[in-house]
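Memo to structure team: turn this sequence into structure tokens by end of day. - J.P.
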Amino acid sequence: LLAEDPSRPAIFVQHYPLSTSDGWWDDYDTTDTTIVERKQRLLDMIAKREHAVFLAGHNHRSSQRPWKVGERVVNEYVAPYFGGRGGVIAVLVSPTRGILEVRTLLSAPS
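Reply from structure team:
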């Protein structure tokens, strides 16, 4: 899929945000790469796409952060925890125009 066409919209999802502390990115010596290399590899993979977004969770609070990769910007969206006044991330994607909108939707308290 990713090798087919870089203009095709892509949504990347991973549990740990790039913005979380480095300790969560530790692979316990299962590879010969550093934390910085692993994060950069993910950013480079996303930045190759014309229309891409990176979604993550783990932090239990909503946040957004842009990551500069060369001349491109990779937008990271972290989903809030669903309990209480939590919510989800919704992505509106057009097959012809790419990613149109990313929004955090908060649930109403019961």
